[in-house]
């Protein structure tokens, strides 16, 4: 029987999202004052961190099947910050506490998974946060 390889594994998805979060956090920290673009960036970061948190269990499931409990627990602890900061940033955004948003963005930027990423000035990611707030509001209305 041949192995089935999923080209869009949880790890690859997480790596893509982490790169976009790194770009967005760095751009957010360059904002002189909060505006509509800042709101787009923050909700994009929140939703992206939620996506990262969702990729953790599918990643560790094969390890747990093989009884690599320590490896699975270590990986969970290494990425536990994603859900924590997503919740903090979401709460600060909804009450428009921009100081708390900035503090959370700084903490995210200092995480090793984010700070070690180098993004070329000529990257092809564009501005992934554009329109995120409107999409979020529309998804909330449709739910």
Q: Work out the count of structural domains.
A: 1
Largest pleated sheet: none
Report the radius of gyration as a whole number of Å. Answer: 17 Å
Estimated share of beta-strand residues: under 5%
Give a description of the structure.
The protein has 143 residues and is mainly alpha-helical. The protein has one domain (11-121). The chain contains eight helices and no strands. It has helices at 10-29, 36-54, 56-65, 69-79, 81-94, 98-110, 112-115, 132-142. The longest helix has 20 residues, at 10-29. The radius of gyration is 17 Å and the shape is globular. The mean pLDDT is 92.
Features:
143 residues, single chain, mainly alpha
How is this structure best summarized?
The chain has 143 residues and is mainly alpha-helical. The chain is built from eight helices and no strands. It has one domain.
Record the SSE blueprint.
Blueprint: H1 10-29, H2 36-54, H3 56-65, H4 69-79, H5 81-94, H6 98-110, H7 112-115, H8 132-142
